[in-house]
Structures are given as structure tokens and as C-alpha cells.
Amino acid sequence: MGRQTTGRGLSADEAFMGLVNYGLFNAKIPPCFTSKDLSSHVPKKLLSLITENDEKKLNKILQKSRHDFIRYESLRDIKIPRQMGIPHPESHIAQCLALKRHWKKIKNHCAKPQTSVSRIFAKKTSSKRIFRMDYKGKESFKNEAEDIQSMMGTYYAVLVDISNCFSSIYTHSIPWAMHGRNRCKNNHSVSLTGNFLDKATQITRDGQTNGILTGPDTSNVVSEIILTQIDHNMIRKGYNQFSRDIDDYTFYAETHAKAEDFIRELGMLLREYELILNSRKTEILSMPLPIKETWVRELNSFRLPPKGAIVRFGTVRSLMDFALKLTHTAETDAVLNYAIKMVPKRLDSRAKRLFVQQAVNLTLLYPYLAPILDEHVFNKHRYNGIEKVISKFCEQLLEIGIQRIYSDVIAYALYYSLKYNLRLGTSQDKLKEIINIDDCLSDVLLLEYAKHHKIKTIQEAMRRRANKLKGMDTREKDRFWLLIYQMWSEKTLNNEGQSFLAKLKRKKFEFLTGQVQKVL
After folding, report:
1. I want to staple 24 with a disulfide (CB 3.0 to 4.6 A). Which of 35, 153, 172, 519 is the partner?
2. Which domain holds residue 464?
3. pTM for the complete prediction?
């Protein structure tokens, strides 16, 4: 197997299909939202972004595809929400077409570093999504071997990351990375690959040049274009023993002075692209160090019954108690996430009931756990009567989300209630408070919940909310594009300047599908 870099083994068509059909909604968002088959609905005018060479026509198409985006906040294990974005499908497709047009050049550019540095990049995956934010199996073993090899003869480890990486990326740095800053000073033509990708990236943020969206897979491609050039420049300066996971760097140094030099050189190169290091997360640690974090190693050492043996709750309780203890010493709530996923499927009936209850109890204390419950708790350990526990849990989770203005917590509470066909005991007045939070995805799920349970007052309140957007600035409508798509007719969408959405509406395209749709 050759060096693994962005796009290796991935054709332009495969990249386009993966980005459009599976890369619009981030994996942290409730899985009922999808853009599957969106690539089948690309207008001819947008398709000309692949073949058109007339600069004025290209600029005109890009300008007409410019939109604002949906805001979304995702809780993390450090208890601080991450600001995320969901691009308007028209601008998203336009950006994907731009990447497709120059995919070969992007692949060649990202393969410039002589040694593999980046560990998370665009590639074929079993899920058809071309970005997976972790690595398993052979990839994990390969990275482990590389780390051990890099440690040879070193006495210090450097851990650094880029401060607010995606939101700090300056779109003009795309052509700087691909062609050099000097060449781009006097050449602003979109016939230059980097300039074309720059413009196509700007349109996903209503023309803004400061920052790229955190969320869509296209942003990972854009960041790799810039960061692999920095990797290449660091290698040319003699730094070979380092790796990068998105924007987190690890370097092994023979001396403390060389460790400090690495930080300085990386910081200087980042400044050339208007990025800076996160000083709060910059560390120089003495070797030897464990290859895996201490809490991961300790959890993996927990003895579970042999494969095939029934697991009783005493074992599960001991594992979760151990994880809670590690949470306090490790200073990260990621321990609980890891531990919940460790619980084997072969629980006896009592263990299933008690573990499900314990998992939802922990999620009410640590709401960032909500996204993993469906796969690793509710489905994995399902039993007769589990719906009662999920219903009570959703009511309390919804209360927490509304009280603390956690939009993703609200979205997951509504998603689970829809998926499991649950009528919550939450009052209509409390549900109306969700509308006041003004979060698009929560509003869409609340609308579906109200339609399914025929709650007319909520449906009417949602209708009034959507109608307020009529006649408003296009930017305001873009920020709620999914809500108006669900609520407005094709005619209204056309009248309100959303012709792209109107065409999708005519074709009955669905952004809300899967298990939730089966309930409705």
C-alpha cells in the first residue's frame, strides 16, 4: 500500500458523490437529516462549473449560488459547545463541483509531503462518507507503529494545536497554499485553481473570506489543502518525526531546544497563512510517554467476561464506576463516552434494564453523551418496555436543553421521541419555548413532532415563525433554509427568492428521512 494522502484512490466522481450525498450534515447531527441522492438533482447551470472556462460566466454562477448557512451548536466532552454550520444545498453543491473540477490537482498538492503526516483525510470508507473522524483496524495499527518508530532516540514530545482552526482559515490562503503567495498577488482570475476554490468556499458563508464552516466534509478538504502545504514546508526544514490529526500536532524531539524550535517554526509557518497556535494547549513533555492516554489504557485493561459469556450488571456497574473515577482524574468526560461503547451486547435482562437506566442518568448529567445512546445503548441493549425509560429520559433531556439553551440536546430529545414514536408529557407551553430559541434543526424536529401527534397549537406557532421570514433579507431565510423547505410550498419558495429549494420541492426531495420518516 502506498502513502495515504487526501484523495488517494478516490476518483473525482467518487469524491463529488461522497461530499454531496453524505457530507452536507455533520455526523454529530441527528441521523434523520440526510442529503442522500442530492447529486441527482444538480441543475444544468451549476453543472457548467465543471466545464465552463469563461471567467465572467464562472463568477456569475458562483455569485448566484452564494448563501448564508444554518447555525448549529454541538456539545463537546469539555462542556463547551462547538459552533457548527450547515451550508445551503445550492452553495454546497457549487463548492463540491469546484472541488470535483480540480480534484486531480488537489490530490497531487496534498501528496507533496515526502512522509505521511496527516492521519484524517478524504478516502473511501464503508459508509460512503469520504471523511471519517477517527481511525480503526489497520490504520490504527499503522499509526501506532509509526509513533513507536518516531520515538526512537527522542527525549521530548511536543503537543500543539491550531487555535480555532476552521473559523480562523482565511479563504485567500487556499491559493497561497496551492500556488504561492507571490503568484497570487497579481492574479485574481478564477482560471487559477486556488482562486476558483477560494471563491467557491466563500459562497458557503455568504461571501465571507474569514473562516470556513465547521461541519460539512468540504471544509476538511479545504483545510487539508492549506495544512498539507504547511506540513510540506516543515518537512523541508528537517522536521520528519511529527504527525497531524486535523489540527493537532505531535512531534518527537531529541532535545528540549529542538522541541522549542519545532513550536517556533510551526508557529511562524502558520502565521504566513494567518493562523496561530493555541498557547493554552502547547506542551513539551518528557519521554517516555504512554502511546495511549492513561485513561484509555486503564479502561482497556478492565477485565470483561470471556467472549460468549453472559454479562451481569455487577460487571457493568464496576466498569462504569471505574470510568467515573477516571473521569475525575483524567479531567475529560470523554472517558464515559468510551466506557459506554465498551459495554458488551451480551447482557442479561436485568443488566440491560439497569445499564440503560444508568446510561440515561449519566446523559442527563453529561448531555454531550446524547448522540451515542441510540447505537450503543437503545439499539444494542433493547428490551421490552425500554420505550418508557426513553420517554421519561426525553422529557428531562428536553427540559435541560431548553433551560440551558443547548440546541443539539433539544434536537436529540425530539429525534428520539420521533424515532421511538413517543408522546412526551412535556407541556405545549414548554414546547413553544423551543421556537423562541430560534434554532433551525430544533424547529424542524419540533414541527415533525407536532405533525405526528397532531398538536395544532405548535403547528400554528411554527407556521407563524416561518411566515415571519417572508419578505425578509435573503440572508435570514438562508439561515433557516431547512425550516422553510419543510414548511413552504414550491410557489412560496420561488416568490421568496429560493428557486433552488423550489426545484427540489417540485421533485419531492427529502432532507428528513430514515427511521424518523417511517414514524411520520
Report:
1. 35
2. 392-519
3. 0.93
